[in-house]
Design brief:
This protein is α+β, with helices and mostly antiparallel strands. Helix content is 54%, strand content 10%. The protein has a four-stranded mixed sheet with strand order 2-1-3-4. The longest helix has 18 residues, at 58-75.
Amino acid sequence: MAKVITYYYTHVSPWSYLGHSRLGELAARHGATIDYVPITLSAIFPKTGGLPLPKRAPERQAYRMAELKRWPQLLGIPLNREPKHFPTDDRPAARLALTAKAQGHDIAGLSLALMRACWVEERDIAEPDTLREVADACGLDGQRLLSESESDQGQQRLDVACEKALAAGCFGSPWYVVDSEPFWGQDRLELVEKALTGKL
């Protein structure tokens, strides 16, 4: 039976972006499936002791920037360390992706496009026009998705996703779960792979 990786993430996390495609490649290598679960850290941090980036100590912010210089170079993935539209509200993009998922779409590509919009293309993924354009470019009906995502049902999907994440112990993004075993951060993907193959 194929293993399942449950993947909790926010589109405005550079670490989620750096690990997103690699997770897909890893899963494909081992015949695993991925349950993509977009969340908002605004629902996670207050309940788990996390702080939004602007409220973190200068030392922590400085180290984050150092890591954001190292990892894109190591991985060969383009990333703007200080994008024009960051921080931005991660809820609209999460609601959009969850709506697409509820309609039966594979949201791996949509989520990557949303991350690239933020971390490469200097676009604000909290803006409705940006969300609609990104969805359209992925071959989806952007306006339909946007309208439904902005409804009470769209918010309810996000609330449920965040409750699920918290129940899984999630306190940051990206957060991966394999056989109830949690892994935090794209730099843990090697461990995720070992868990898939029974070598951990």
